[in-house]
Amino acid sequence: MAKTIGNPLSWLLQGAETTGHHISETVGEMGSEGVRDLPQARDLSMDDIIHSLAAGLEDFAACRSDAMFLVLFYPLIGIALIVMSLSMNLLPLIVPMIMGFAILGPVAAIGLYEMSKRREEGLEPRWVDAFSVIRSPSFGAILVLGLYLAALFVIWLVAADMIYSRTLGPEPPASIASFATDVLTTRAGWIMAIAGGAVGAVFAFAALAMSIVSFPLLLDRHVGLPVAVATSIRVMRKNPVVCMTWGALVGSALVIGAIPFLAGLIIVVPVLGHATWHLYRRAVQ
């Protein structure tokens, strides 16, 4: 029987049917099996961090231009936030915004996990392959977890603003120079820096515990969001020193990458993203 091209109405109906089927699969994946079916967490050592970073560098070298293209928006968004902060007298929130990138990092690296996975399978990764995560049955769970981290980032900014208001504020600083002087030379500035660092560490720890392996796990296996987060927390509890070292390394690398007008993030983010995939392979049985 001869096939016809069809008309726009039929295309629309077929697209709606496919989208509905995908949404139903996504909702089912978000619940998945119970906590009793958690994947097993392995014991990690500092060697695992070294090997994961080496593998991340290898992946970055293999698909450097594609990876850099994917994360180019990352420093651009950061620069836009900084410019907006300066124009809206939100200067004290610039540093918390930069530090908060560590909270949102796992979300930005989703496409990089997919590229590492394809390269692991012997396929030639391309930047368009990173968007195949949208077709994953776990995409809904990935999206929800990303929204959780985004909410955590917003709460951190609110907390940072409250700390500033109770120390150097509530009036905005007159200039960047005067703000830096107040932070470095006044008692209130020292209190703000210490309190902000301590509270920020709590937020960073919470984000790390939730996401150290959850995003790669959701991308790799058909598990639900509760299982992915519980597995991530289990890895953290079983390997606290290694996981905290990894978190400190990620945070330090993001800060260093942010110094040259955030341009260094174009290299730092892909390397850490690929390395996170390999750390997940070593952390989860």
From TrEMBL:
Keywords, in A-Z order: Membrane, Transmembrane, Transmembrane helix
Superkingdom classification of source: Bacteria
Segments traversing the membrane: 67-87, 93-113, 134-159, 190-219, 240-272
Residue runs in coiled coils: none
Protein name, per record: DUF2189 domain-containing protein
Species whose genome carries this gene: Leisingera aquaemixtae
